[in-house]
Fold these 3 entries.
Entry 1:
Amino acid sequence: MDKPFAITLNIGSSLANHTGSWRNERPVYVNRLPPCNDACPAGEDVQGWLYEGEAANYEQAWRNLVRDNPLPAIMGRICYHPCQTACNRAQVDEAVGINSVERFLGDEAIKQGWQFKITAPATGKKILIVGSGPSGLSAAYHLAMRGHTVTIRESAAAAGGMMRYGIPAYRLPREVLDAEISRIVNMGVTIECNAKVESAEAALAEGFDAVFLAIGAHLGKRAFIPAGDTARILDAVSVLHMTADGQPPMLGRRVVVYGGGNTALDAARTARRLGAYEAIVVYRRTQEKMPAHEIELKEALDEGIIMRWLSTVSRVDEGKVTIEKMALDEKGFPQPTGEFEDLDADSVILALGQEVDLSVIEGMKEIKVEDGVIEVDEYLMTGRIGLFAGGDAVPGERTATNAIGHGKQAARAIDSWLQGEKFVHALRPELASFDKLNTWYYSDAPKTVRPKLDAARRASNFSEVVQGLDAETAVFEARRCLSCGNCFGCDNCFGVCPDNAVIKLEGGKYEINLDYCKGCGICANECPCGAIDMELERS
Amino acid sequence: MSTPLKFYQVGSFAVGNRLLAEEQLSEQSRPGRTNSLTSGHRACQGCGEALGARYALDAAMAATDGKIVAVNATGCLEVFSTPYPETSWRLPWLHSLFGNAAAVATGVSAALRAQGKTDIRVIAQGGDGGTVDIGFGPLSGMFERNDDVLYICYDNEAYMNTGVQRSGATPPAARTNTTHAVGANPGASFSQGKNLPVIAMAHGIPYVATATVADLHDLEEKVKKAMTFRGARYLHILVPCPLGWGSRSEETIQLARLAKESGLFPVFEAEYGEVTETKPIRRLVKVDEYLKPQKRFAHLFGPKAHPEQLIAIQAIADRNIAKYKLVNEATQLPADQEVSRG
Ligand SMILES: Cc1cc2nc3c(=O)[nH]c(=O)nc-3n(C[C@H](O)[C@H](O)[C@H](O)COP(=O)(O)OP(=O)(O)OC[C@H]3O[C@@H](n4cnc5c(N)ncnc54)[C@H](O)[C@@H]3O)c2cc1C
Ligand SMILES: Cc1ncc(C[n+]2csc(CCOP(=O)(O)OP(=O)(O)O)c2C)c(N)n1
Ligand code: SF4
Ligand code: SF4
Ligand code: SF4
Ligand code: SF4
Ligand SMILES: [Mg+2]
């Protein structure tokens, strides 16, 4: 080669110099478990569906969501959203309004008529589900998705369980409930109503390959309260059930509700809507100890419900109840004080919790019952082979979300069991806790607050209290997600590498060029969401 | 959707985003970026100077349709990029001496003008030593003649290439190999310092700006803006150096961010000698947070520390905050700090 004066070597590029050999550590793209996913009792991949929501790909977002939970429009209304309690964004400004986006997607699906698509081939296996509450419906959906033939038998006149006969319409409009149930029916699931199953053993003998008990807990708990002959005492579940049936009981103008759970609040709020001008909730402990959720208490107070903390009902007579004041002892337990007070009341509603109607398993000795609920193993199987149970009828938190989670778990367990296997959980990745994030990159934006109907107007009818997001606010809310532990395509790693050792691929993917990566760790440090881990080089 | 939606997830802080429209992407987020300084260079792990140079030159290349000639002073950037016969540069690039980059760039600019090729733009670049110390005479001349050159100083606050000696830009109390952490006033002295951005402004040149490798969007905008002017322009970029600062390689960007967020490194722009814009502090931090991770400041902490040194450094930050009005209504203050908002 002809070289200019004083040049002895050919010019070369530094690309010949593979600086990757300097490396002690290498960056690795990882998927960590977002706290929202971790907290969701239905096991939703919240971050995963929000990711599609951020791009306004609503149908894909909905499809990602319903992989785990087939009732998003319902859950978007009544779930107590533990996901939001766990959300990392709460430590930046305010938790992402996951539940409101979920509802938006659920409503959008109803509006657009999106349906489930079964891709699994038919297995020929027949499964009976007893009860059509959230656990029964969820199990039916997940089993049908796996190609099984599903029949639900329901003792009530319509499907839905407590979602129809407990939760009032002002929180869950029945059109929404109907729409999500009919989508499951459209998959080929048979729901037989007015069809009480008297014996689980007999049902198994009918030739079902497996039976799932999703019978809930419907018997209002009783407490002995001295009462005059003409005293009007009802239980909350019946009041709500009758109201849902369109035959509300006569409650009078002044109503006292006894209990501190959500059922008590729903009963009091329902009483107001049925015409009572005064609804007092009597609860033996304090506000902090109340099992009802904060949001519901707030909504109840907004509607003019009166709370009497640290009080018990000691006697009921016509037109009045006598309550005794309580005081907390040094251990924090309420103790009677001997101080009494009379309240005017036309009726008293007891909301002291519900019990499971166990008649369906009567005589089945191999099934263990403890504290009034059915014992199950980690696969939700009872002591009777082939008989599974979930939801309110088994130990655990009594929420619709948990019931939906049980339905999914039971379906997976039944599916594996039918194939002679045991369901194996995928390994849970490391939690994407707040300290894994680099929050510098997130800009501040407050949560979109769902508009609320004026409280006064709300108390007088059964129309829905909390209104939904529109498309623009939903996408705004979805974009507040920090995408904890999972790459969201921010290009930071690609940009910040001093050695150009990150390759940006099509479709929001990235790759490390190990020929040049020196292992400095800047990419991992500057990844906003903690999706890059530095691992020691072996050699 | 008819109206373009704002992106609330990361605002404009991250390098890019999968949801941004093509025209909203930063240069660094484009797969087809120039990579003016390509892989295989021999800079240390996590070198802020290598990063800053690519950020700045890629932006300049994008702003001029690839018509850039770069002139480099001696220093790390030159040494690690061009061990003969290899080069990491993907643009026309010249190196002459440690102290004459501004003069050589002036010559290149004049030669191009003589040939009528004024669409080809000239950048001179060097470290803080090559800029504020040995190269200062030619640079001041370049300013004074208003030669059509953008001069970029990559400030890592010492002579790093020769093993970390103090420069006119070394901050007070910093330990270098010529300012050991011994005696009554360990580390570099609390002198007047040599604030080159302000000296450049005093020349009244069209454009002066400061930036850091922690704010890519700001840096790219400033380079692009500089290319809209003719005449002498000066850009001063803070580029942390893990070797000389004794910091962990992954902390390079983090430290640049803290330098700005503590008020020690004010980020601003000036036109014709007047400050036109400053970047307010987003999350104010005490100087400790910036100094502590750096071994060159290790003697400021611990039982043998001289507390008055830390107080004096905080006072410098406070003075900058007041002078450049770096704290505004939106600034998040640390729980125990009171600062008057500008
Ligand atoms: C007033 C009230 C408000 C609530 N609010 C909320 C809320 O806002 N959010 C939330 O997450 N949870 C709420 N819950 C709890 C939630 O409703 C329950 O946890 C959930 O419905 C339990 O689901 P499940 O499928 O186990 O049972 P259920 O929903 O109770 O359904 C069981 C079904 O089985 C049927 N059944 C029972 N025995 C038989 C039989 N032998 N043969 C045939 N059918 C049978 C029943 O008729 C019923 O339809 C509320 C509960 C109440 C009572
Ligand atoms: C006239 C002259 N004196 C000394 C040197 C040795 N020398 C080369 S680079 C350098 C220091 C460079 O420091 P700086 O400009 O801050 O750049 P950095 O390496 O820190 O990026 C020195 C002293 C030289 N090349 N020429
Ligand atoms: S920010 Fe997003 S991914 Fe993180 S916990 Fe909240 S919803 Fe989940
Ligand atoms: S920033 Fe670049 S060199 Fe550093 S670890 Fe990441 S890929 Fe490797
Ligand atoms: S830095 Fe951004 S692009 Fe890279 S892995 Fe993290 S989220 Fe994904
Ligand atoms: S000594 Fe500093 S400036 Fe020089 S290559 Fe290393 S990190 Fe970069
Ligand atoms: Mg230097």
Entry 2:
Amino acid sequence: MLEINNLSAKVDKKTILNGLSLKIKPGEVHAIMGPNGSGKSTLANVLSGKKGYEISGKVNYDDKDLFELAIEERAHRGLFLAFQYPLEIPGVNTSNFLKTSLNAIRKSNGKKQLDALEFLKIVKQKASELKIDEKILHRQLNVGFSGGEKKKNEILQMSLIEPKMAILDETDSGLDIDALKIVAKGVNALRNKKRSFLIITHYQRLLDYIKPDFVHVLMKGKIAKSGCMELAEELEKAGYEKI
Amino acid sequence: MIEELNKNFEIFRKTYIPKLEDEKKRIEAFKDFEKSGFPNKKLEDWKFSDFSSIISNKIENIKVSLERNKNFKFENFIKDFDHIKIFFFNGFFVEKGEKFDEKKGFNYVTPYNGFKRNFSKEGGFLILPNSNNALESLNNAFFTDGLSIATKKNFEFKKPIVIYNIFEGSKKNNFFNNKIHFVISENSKLDIMIYNINIGEEPIFFNLKNTFYLKKNSIFKLYNLSDFKKNDVHYNFGRYFLEENSIFENFNNCYSGGFSKSDLVCSLNKEYSSCFINGVMLSQDQNHHEIKTLINHNEKNTKSYQKIKSVLNHSSKGVFQGKIKVSPEAQKTDGYQLSKALLLDKNSEFDSKPELEIYADDVKCSHGSTSGNLDEEAIFYLMSRGLDKYEAKKLLIKGFLTDAIETITNNEIKKYFLNKLENNINEHR
Ligand SMILES: Nc1ncnc2c1ncn2[C@@H]1O[C@H](COP(=O)(O)OP(=O)(O)OP(=O)(O)O)[C@@H](O)[C@H]1O
Ligand SMILES: [Mg+2]
């Protein structure tokens, strides 16, 4: 699904990612942990196509050279990033935005556009599954949303879009226990043999619910250690110092 | 250009049939205009818009024609909401619009149907005001037709009135001077939209003066919209006088035309009167739009609110000059003013001059002005959700401007303007 080979990324001559390699097969769930500033969000941004990085290395996504694809083409081909800090966009109605996004992706995949009613039915159902208050659908996108509401809104988008490869950047940070379970439920509901996940987190708690296949530690811009759930438990106890 | 106008004025005086009670006023007004000429940027009020060079760039030969088109046909009126229609064609009132009667809640007069019926206490437009505004003097000199309406007391209009100013700009006829004069009587409620459209091939200069008196407890909403051509020039001089507990809501859409300036003076003359003057600019193709406001807080407990959102692209120019003036009597004034602009290319320009002039001590006044570019992070966020760059920008622009349109309290008209915005953004590449 996703094969990262010797990926480096620089901003203003500062190296942030430094020869990172990682392979994620269809159906696998990988977790990435790592200290603040180690480059986790940078990895997520580079994969989704954010501009402003000087990049070297190779990334294959779904049998394509990822760097040949524009930002929106990556989304059209099933790559999804739940942002660590979802943006507030004044004046843009949340429901309207969700429909525009979903239809843009459907269109690129030759699927029929959903009309307002069809969309509303789907979004209401997904929102209730995720215990999201429907009222936020009528509000301006993320404007004045609580931290938790913003994160849940990202998961709502993920469940609407049903991506092939979802990257979650600290979606669990700042969530209460119930919300954490909802996010885990959202991920587990989508989990299947074809769909892959890359979950960036600081806490073992989310991983207890999701049970990833692999856990990696990102330090100084590369994968310093890989393992399974036990690695997350070790980190929880001993921190990053011993690695 | 002035010489040309002089010739036009002589012909106009000979051919224009209804005479004012005081025709000398016209001649004086024209002399006033001749003395100062078209305003240029040396004048503080025209600092950012050099009208004299704008007009000579946009219009080759200025020409007044008093020909009235008897076969006027216009089917392209608004279908989105029910409204009372009033038509002007090439500056003349057209009888084909709505029939007026007392039951509809207002009485009206235009120079052609009753010059002598000077029923409006405020003098209507039949008495030409002295002016030190050159374009108003010009309007006084060439004033051809207009509409003077007084609403009935305690009358609430169920539908808005739309005044369609339709022009067929040609080389022979491109200069139009009208006046609109309303008295919104005590306890009455009225919504009006002034819709200017040039269906002709050639550019026009439309010089409009409008005056509105809001009596005690009245609520008046005034919306402006124009479908102008690339070189059309429009000057809209509005004066609004508010009495006790009256509410004035004004919304200006600036989408089209070579140059347009709304020059709005609102006087809050009695206690508890309030005005809301908002607007959007979406300027492209070297358009130049200006909104200039002066709010006079002349009495205590008065309130003003202004929100102007502007998007400039393709070497266009936007200007907002807004002044809140609080007289010594006007304690407990609440004044708010905000102008925000997005510049989409480096050849576009936005000039803003917010001013507060306060002579009372117990007041709450604030103003703010920002201009900047679209947020790259927001564009990335939207694109990562499958929108291409054009769609992402469009959504952000729409969101930015919608914020101002949301201030409109007539829901039907708000919806109509939101659709207009959508169409205008779609054309905005
Ligand atoms: N645009 C940028 N300009 C300058 N420095 C940057 C930029 N983006 C990231 N960095 C730096 O790169 C480093 C890695 O940042 P990144 O956001 O990827 O960390 P992270 O692992 O996600 O941290 P956290 O756990 O706190 O979210 C940090 O030191 C950060 O300051
Ligand atoms: Mg991060």
Entry 3:
Amino acid sequence: MSPHGNPEVPASSASEVIRGAEQVPSGAPTPEAAATETKAAATTPASENQVPSIQPAVNHADRGAWGLWEVFVRSSRGLSHVHAGSLHAPDAAMALRNARDLYTRRNEGVSIWVVPADAIAASDPDAKGSFFESPQGKDYRHATYYTKSEGVKHL
Amino acid sequence: MAAQNLQSVPAELSPEDEAAGQANFDRVMAEDSRIEPKDWMPAAYRKTLLRQISQHAHSEIIGMQPEANWISRAPSLKRKAILMAKVQDEAGHGLYLYSAAETLGQTRDKMMEDLIAGKARYSSIFNYPALTWADMGAIGWLVDGAAICNQVPLCRASYGPYGRAMVRICKEESFHQRQGFEILLELSNGTPEQKQMAQDAVNRWYAPALMMFGPPDDDSPNSKQSMAWNIKRFSNDELRSRFVGMMVEQVRVLGLTLPDDQVRFNEDTRKWEHGPLDWHEFQEVLAGRGPCNAQRLERRREAHDDGAWVREAAAAYAAKQQAKQSMTTKEYAA
Ligand SMILES: [Fe+2]
Ligand SMILES: [Fe+2]
């Protein structure tokens, strides 16, 4: 018993998560079973003439069985989904339910996308100079470049 | 061009790339811009952030306990619902912060392991017991209040994922402080016994709440570096002084008093001052010898173990579904 005489309350959130299974939208994206795949690969004896497989950038086996998902929330109709954060879940259905509980407790969204984190390809920040085209000398891509029409109405 | 994952993993770099990374980092600091996970960052910056963010996450998670203990005995259904919503928010805060820490290359499982093994630190405040219902008021008003004071400047922390997590957290914290204030106000306007209970709770939580800002500035060696890195924006004493000023105003509305007869506004420094704090006690609690340290860790361990079957079952179910799906795919292919 605790010093202040409080009975400890079991705080498992498991029932919260399981409730509402029928609300899982159909057509949810299929998760890459990165965790299980990586684990299987690790236990398969390496063979010399094995075809090299593509490895995920981050070894999901390190994270236990629950992979990492990125969460995108549409805050209201007419707007794009915007990245809200990430979470761990064993599959897409649980990822969606966890995302609802974690990122939309106060009506922050009307729609959620969850994406396996390692399914996202991102540009390399080190390659910034070469990857993003220089705007130098390309003023003509902006309306402000064209000054001759100044004073002409509705143009 | 290689596709990059979203996590930051320190890599061996050539001296030239290392120098370019440092130059970019310095420029970001000078411009007060943001560092993102895939950017080069000094090893010490990464380590400091990882320590700070994971300790912060642990604090949110352990911080659920003193209040969760009172959910079953909240005085009304409304108060019960409010307290449950607050405790759920704290769980969410922990998860936002673990996610932010993960972008630095540490797994959440490892951080949890460290917490359960007693290797990680968390805010000393949560090692004090919540003795009466009035403590729910004092915790919300003083503890969440101090947390807000600390956290608002962290929304501008130089590490992007940390700042974004803090923005989300700060939005939710103001309800926490207000519900605590209301609990105290109601008790203060109740029977003399109820008012006394409120005053007693304020008396016990005041000093520990002031110590949440950390040791005095001349005894806080890491603060300078954190400020140079734009992680920390104001010193511990500065934030503490601001907090005292706010409490002085608010305690009057409550009709209660602060247990500190040395609180005063220094006209010369234009800062609020308070009485001496017991920094020995602070160090003791931090070192694991506080009134509830053992109990808090034990409870966390229990919850982790009790939840093991859920994690395993969910993973097994996912694997089974996955296997079924690949069978169907093969059938289609054939
Ligand atoms: Fe919190
Ligand atoms: Fe809070």
